[in-house]
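Notes on consecutive records. When two proteins share a document, each keeps its own sequence and its own token line. Never mix them. Below: protein one.
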Amino acid sequence: MSAYKAFKACVPIEWSDKLYITLVRGMPGTRELHRRTLEALRLRKCNRRVVRKNTPTVRGMLQQVKRLVAIETKEMYEARKQKEANHRALRPPLVINHHHSSPSN
């Protein structure tokens, strides 16, 4: 299981009025119909993200190119961003005290 799928599994999926769509695979070697669909979604380069309204038209387009894109709801997107921010946050320094004990005779 990929890290992305593992993350998706831990976030509850709810209805969202906006979809965050990221192109995760390249367009070379894909069908012309898929390339035109990605152009219509304004996804031209890998790892680019667009925000679209959750409409039946957009969902139909995403169904065509579902193997090329990652789709997140607003809640999933915010949870992932929060997790990344927590990972990058400064952590308190690790303090190690080396108490040299004197030998007792």
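Protein two starts on the next line and is unrelated to protein one.
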Amino acid sequence: MSTSANDAGPFVPEKADLAGLREAAAGCRGCALYEDATQTVFGDGGAGARLVMVGEQPGDQEDRKGEPFVGPAGRLLDRALEEAGIERGDAYLTNAVKHFKFTRREGKRRIHQKPGVTEMAACRPWLVAELRLIGPDVIVALGATAGRALLGSAFRVTKQRGVPLPCPPYDRLGTAAEGDEANGRIVATVHPSSVLRSDDRDAAYAGLLSDLKVAAGLLGRP
């Protein structure tokens, strides 16, 4: 039986470091997704990261291993980061939603399901806590779901990708009015998993790489 109230806020400890947040997130019951997922998949990286990359949610392999971006999409992202001149170790990787949402097919096969607005809102306190601790110069939104989690429902990755956008105040992520601004910029791009699904992977990858180079430029990388 679910004990969630669709709000992770009560599970987020005050004055915790990233290790403390990660430990607390393991017991999060802020939405019903925890019931079927193997475990919480929290962010990975250091508090000194100048770049935070926000994806949608963990996938099947991430859910099993407990780490973000360790499946095929993560390996493609590693390649793109390297080509863009960004060390993965210099970035903090996380997701807008920390539990894997899926449906089962053919018995045991788990098929990704897009998280809903309620689940994104429920999990937002974890993302806010991560960003407050890190205070990145640049946030990369990987895909439409991450973009909407950061910039609100009007965000469209097809129209706003690759363009530096002002980051809303962290406590107004996803709901901030136009013109609100915190330190740092957001650069949106496609999720690397969409590159793997594309009919023209070379073109899709080139677009991802181009957007990541914009983020690299904001960090002062050539």
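For the record: Residues 117-134 form the longest helix (18 residues).
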